[in-house]
Amino acid sequence: MTLRNVVARTFGASIILTCTAISLPAIAKTADGKLLVAVSFQRQQEQRWAVDRAVMEAEAAKHNVELRFEYANGDPIKQASQVESLLARDPDVLIICPVNGASAGPIVKSAKESGVPVIAYDGGVTTAKVDFYITRDNYQVGVLQAKEALKFAPKGNYAMIKGDTQWQELPAFVKGWKDVLQGNESIKVVFDQYTTGWSPTAAQAHAENALSANSDNIAAFMVMNDSMATGTVQALKSRNLEGKVFVSGNDAETPTLKLIKSGAQTMSVYTDINDFGSSAIKAAIALANKQVPPHEKMVDHGAGEVPTHIVPIVAVTKDNLCDVVKSMAKGWTSPNEVFGGPNECK
Known about the structure:
It comes from Microvirga tunisiensis. By secondary structure, this protein is α/β, with parallel strands linked by helices.
């Protein structure tokens, strides 16, 4: 049975959406002596992944590492087939951002049976133990969002627009919200919905429903990512409430940063992509040389504790927008793109 078929059977039995990366040991090198690292990303269409790739390529060039990339475009079966082809090239390391954390188990097991250590990148694998994990702390993302919400709206009705239930990190994210907001008698959660596929259209519908059910009396929308925040902003705009209601987000891509500048969206969270991508390459090199990469904590997603590097994050608001934009990874955005010219952000 091929790896593709094994994943197909696993995917049919259990679906847990996540994002992961794998790295493989220094067994096979390219003809010119370079380490070969195969990279399988979950998708390609978001700006984020092009920047991750560029950062990885820059770091790899410093260390004589060759990279090969594939993009699964949200299809776990396609990803299994792509990884099977990548493993056939005898890479030293595989970096995979799995479409599905449960169905990624057979992919991880296949790599490890081939002597390839695995690094999970930006999400966990639940059905097989990886060798290393690189992620942001999604609990802290939730904490940052909730703290900013209380600054903007210390009392009133709150609406929660959550992401897809299949996302592995969703419980930790929600716990971050709850640990800040629970017990605050000035806050009342009047709306709480998950959003299949993180759809901006569905998020807009959620926001409209929350507003209608509460006669537009919503003080804050706790929104898990920027694409859904964009839908929420549209709902507020249609009711002349743009900029008057707190809206959180996560990812801090250029369209969102423009919304923060205008005041339509209150905040987002930026993850240091320079650290993300470069840490993955450094970890791959370490594992290839039978070493444990530097890490801050151990994380268990169900298959055993894994050494984990936590990537820095920062809350992005109108107050620190210029400074954060100037510090972002090359290719992510620029002051000119966000501010419309060089004079507003020097």
